[in-house]
Amino acid sequence: xxxxxxxxxxxxxxxxxxxxxxxxxxxxxxxxxxxxxxxxxxxxxxxxxxxxxxxxxxxxxxxxxxxxxxxxxxxxxxxxxxxxxxxxxxxxxxxxxxxxxxxxxxxxxxxxxx
Length: 114
Prior knowledge:
Layout: E1 4-6, H1 15-20, E2 22-24, H2 28-36, E3 40-42, E4 62-70, E5 73-82, H3 91-113
Antiparallel strand pairs: 1-2, 3-4, 4-5
């Protein structure tokens, strides 16, 4: 629906979040990325553009968040997180995920049209 995210696939998300299954679309980092409609890379040095109040999981050391859109319609969000200090995402990783997100958006739009 247009007001909430539904979690369809996840790994490593706490059970209490999965039980809720719906989250307001503009809450958290995923919602912020949807409102901007631009992918974001978050690492040890958080860009000034990322609202610090949205970052509520200190165990996450690096993140990539990419909006999934087709025909100006938001279909979802890819969120990939790394909890290890030794594993960091970079701009090349973000570019790759963004391209994958574009392909996934086309596939999702075709599935939802049928």
